[in-house]
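for the recovery benchmark. C-alpha cells below, seq after
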C-alpha cells in the first residue's frame, strides 16, 4: 500500500481526470512477456522502488508508466499501466491492469490503486 501511495503521488500531477479500463486492452499474453518486451525497448527508462519495477516511456507523444508488482506481492504476477493522454486541451489518465493472481488479490490491487489515484487527483 505504501508503494502505491508513493507511485500515485509522484505521477498524479500529470492528470486531470481518471478513466479505468478493462484489463483485456493489454497487448501482451502475460505479465512476464510484457516485462521482457518493455525491458528490451531502448527508449524505456527502468527503475526499482520498494521491489516494484517501474518502466516509463513515451508512446505516441503520451507518457506511459508500467508498474510491475514484486514477487512477494500478494497479486504477483501483476502490472498496472498508466497512460496520460492529451485530450481537448486537457489531460486524461487511463489505468489498465493485468493480473494473473487469484481474482480476489487482483481486485484488491486494482481497488487500492484506484482509491489512491482519486485521493491525489
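predicted aa per position
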Amino acid at each position: 500500500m505504501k508503494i502505491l501511495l508513493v507511485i500515485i503521488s509522484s505521477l498524479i500531477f500529470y492528470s486531470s481526470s481518471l478513466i479505468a479500463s478493462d484489463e483485456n486492452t493489454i497487448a501482451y499474453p502475460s505479465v512476464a512477456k510484457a516485462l521482457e518486451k518493455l525491458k528490451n525497448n531502448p527508449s524505456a527508462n527502468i527503475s526499482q522502488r520498494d521491489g516494484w519495477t517501474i518502466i516509463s516511456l513515451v508512446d505516441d507523444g503520451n507518457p506511459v508508466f508500467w508498474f510491475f508488482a514484486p514477487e512477494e506481492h500478494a497479486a504477483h504476477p501483476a502490472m498496472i499501466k498508466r497512460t496520460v493522454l492529451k485530450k481537448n486541451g486537457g489531460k486524461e489518465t487511463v489505468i489498465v491492469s493485468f493480473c494473473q493472481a487469484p481474482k480476489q488479490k487482483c481486485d484488491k490491487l486494482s481497488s487500492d490503486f484506484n482509491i489512491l489515484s482519486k485521493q491525489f487527483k
